[in-house]
Amino acid sequence: MIQEEKQELKQIIQSEIATLSTEIATIQTALKPIKKDCSLDSIDHKMLKQDQNVNIQRYEVAKVRLNRLKAAYLNIDSKEYGVCQECEEDINIERLKLIPESKYCVSCMNELGL
Predict the structure, then answer these.
(1) Are 80 and 94 in contact (CB under 8 A)?
(2) In the prediction, which pLDDT does 2 show?
(3) Strand (E) or helix (H) holding 63
(4) Rounded to an integer, what distance in angstroms lies between the CA atom of residue 111 and that of residue 114?
(5) C-alpha radius of gyration, the chain, whole number
(6) Buried b or exposed e, range 62-84, using 16+ CB within 10 angstroms
(7) What confidence score (pLDDT) does residue 50 get?
(8) CATH architecture of 3-112
(9) Once rounded to an integer, what is the mean pLDDT over residues 11-40?
């Protein structure tokens, strides 16, 4: 991978980190505990709990991806970045632009069922 590609990937990762950080902050505001409100019937309360469960899942997925992006950013200058952990071939640069935290090439990912 040439230096210009690494620089472009760094910018992509920084942008993704900023976007995810904003999304996480937004989700956190929706994660406040739901209090039993006498004006809500049981169906409304269940819907609010369901929405909260969706937000919890979104939050957890976003946090995991944020951590992976931060790790990718820290490792981008290492020889291991951009190399498939399974077949040890270079991961396609277009894949890395879409998913910069990728650890596997598409072929190995499909074979591993990930």
Answers:
(1) no
(2) 86
(3) helix 42-75
(4) 8
(5) 19
(6) beebbebbeebbeebeeeebbbb
(7) 85
(8) Up-down Bundle (1.20)
(9) 84
